[in-house]
Amino acid sequence: MSGIGDDDIRLAVKEWKLRLYLYETGPKTTAWVVLDTGDNVLEERARAHRNPHDVAVPEIGDELAAGRALVALGQQLIDCATTDVEGVGAGRIDSHD
Fold this sequence. Notes:
alpha+beta; Double Stranded RNA Binding Domain; 1 helix
């Protein structure tokens, strides 16, 4: 009977560093996210703009701008992976798998 022994298991651990910066200027909040994978550095920026008639709650602008920047970064990662997969001749990938 064959099984997987401890010597057969290889654990690969990677650390990606993500920095998120938030800048507020009046009713505008800008988020800048930087992801360092060790192999590549990806960046995205996004904004949130408060309606001048709304109550100023800086946390809301932070959340919207940061969320938008992170979503854009996620899409950028998927696009990079798709390009890499196609580059090695493996065909298209479904971004929802």
